[in-house]
Amino acid sequence: FSLVSGSRSSKTFKPKKNIPEGSHQYELLKHAEATLGSGNLRQAVMLPEGEDLNEWIAVNTVDFFNQINMLYGTITEFCTESSCPVMSAGPRYEYHWADGTNIKKPIKCSAPKYIDYLMTWVQDQLDDETLFPSKIGVPFPKNFMSVAKTILKRLFRVYAHIYHQHFDSVMRLQEEAHLNTSFKHFIFFVQ
């Protein structure tokens, strides 16, 4: 990215979720990055031979969270309460927030508020050792696949919002290639 000094809001978004170096998950992430480097996104999303599917999904979910976090972080100054009073991806897609715990009944909120709720919620899921165990041999919960699907479905909404509401800003920042590659990788993975 070419970052023009002074053009970024100084507030950082959510902390990056780090995968501990030397761990098996770290090795999987390195494998994913190496296959991504080949330019073959379809190959990059394939479960490596002999690897655990849940672990592969966990590592990639963390990676997509970090990517979306970074991409959205570049356009936060354009995504405001006034510019985006509702979380949408066009007139036919409006998203209301509910996490099932603190907010049970879906609420209508601005895009920045929705995305803040969403990314905080995802961060909490990723930090929950019972859902995303970081230690080798600790089993994933029985509902892991449905948790991961919900996270990925909700992260998709951030891509949708960026594309629909902020693509002009993405183009001005010359980030469209990065956004497009990240989104294509995401779509191949979830398929």
From TrEMBL:
SMART domains: Mob1_phocein
UniProt keywords, alphabetically: Kinase, Metal-binding, Transferase, Zinc
Name under which the protein is recorded: MOB1A kinase
UniProt cross-references to Gene3D superfamilies, sorted A to Z: MOB kinase activator
Keyword Zinc: yes
Gene: Mob1a
Molecular function, one GO term: kinase activity
PANTHER family linked: MPS ONE BINDER KINASE ACTIVATOR-LIKE MOB
Organism listed in the record: Malurus elegans (Red-winged fairywren)
Residues bound to Zn(2+): C79, C84, H161, H166
Pfam families per record: Mob1_phocein (PF03637)
